[in-house]
Description:
three-stranded antiparallel beta sheet
Amino acid sequence: MSTPVRVRFAPSPTGFLHVGGARTALFNWLWARHTGGTLVLRIEDTDAQRSTDEMIQGILDGLEWLGIDWDEGPFHQSQRGARHREAADRLVESGSAYPCFCSVEMLAAEREAAIARKESYVYSGRCRGLDPAEAARRREGGEPSTVRFAVPAGETSWEDVVHGHTAFENRTIGDFIILRSDGAPIYNLAVTVDDLDMRITHVVRGDDHISNTPKQILLYGALGVEPPVFAHVPLILGPDKSKLSKRHGAVAVTAYREQGFLSAAFVNFLALLGWSPGDDREVMTRAELIEAFTLERITGKSAVFDVEKLEWLNGQHLSRLSGAEVAAIAKPLFVHARIADEAELARRAAWFEDLMALVKTRSRTLHDLVEQGRPFFPGPVEYQPDAVEKFWKDAALADSALAVAEAYVAGEEQWGDLEAMEAGLRALAEESGVPAGKVMQAMRVALTGQRVSPGIFETMTAMGPDVVRDRLAAARAWLAGRAASQAGA
């Protein structure tokens, strides 16, 4: 019987949950859910000066928005110091580690000498040959010391799920510190001991941790335990192929919630950053991602963070929701924007659901829903300059088109029958000698203030005759003022 999968997400609370960390959390979550395994949440907060409760809460908020839940934890690494020191003492007792009394000045001199030789610095091992009894006496006497792991000769290798066979020459690693002089554990020791105690079977993390892996494998061996399976995920790059930065999108993931992205769409987007379902699918639900996810399908190439792709995916997810589902999500945004209050939206609930069904297909974010939906509420609209320039550039011609529209609205008796409405408008436009297309274009600006909108007859039906009449009259008054100014110029 195979060992049940146990994975972990272990963020450091020195910053908010950003895109790279969120993807790591997602891949671990997907693997746990795909295999029926366990996801452990561990907060690696040993950097007391930089770790804050605010950052921890920010990480938890980000995971909650993404819908990433965990089965055990959150555990705090800072509370496990005694266990880490116990493991270090055990390594010293077994001869796998030793006290190092080298001062900062000595180590700096070694480093400078290596630089002068144009070599990469590796600790010389000066204290490795100390007699254990002498080293113990010096430690007991209060002489400052760290604890270093004694790296054996040879090489350390592993079969990485993503990168295949990966190996490091041990001489390039050097004897590394596992315990500081104040007794605080170094990252590699703390992580190894925690993963060991928490029975982690698979470590899925970013490529930036590859250099830590041989040290951790050596520690596992010295502690008499087989290491877990490692899968190192390539980094995420900006569209210009440089390291992802704030200008590309390396911000707290909750910022994308504020920008109007759906959690399901953002999860879908993150999953495709360095992973593929093995077919042509791009728009996927959480359930579909879980079913398809395997570590073997993580690609070895860096992924590019493409905001346009994110917006497209968000639009696809929006379009798949029903009008009622979109209305439930959008309602607080309309209230916040002071377009309508809760009482009005409750009173016109069915109408609002129909409206959201109408505008969702042209929206990529939730904020687009607000901008697309705003004109359908009573009150004046703002005419977008590009819409005016394109369809109302000649104020007199635009007014003529709107005059036809006003006459049409005054006589329309089949409101809501889209085919009949279009036939009636086209007939009246032909009688008036104004192209029907010009009439509809001029109407779109008058009714919505925008260049694009849902179909003009769907728009009219959603607005209702009263709002349409008011908008046409307001538009003609505006155009009269514009024509006067153009004539005087």
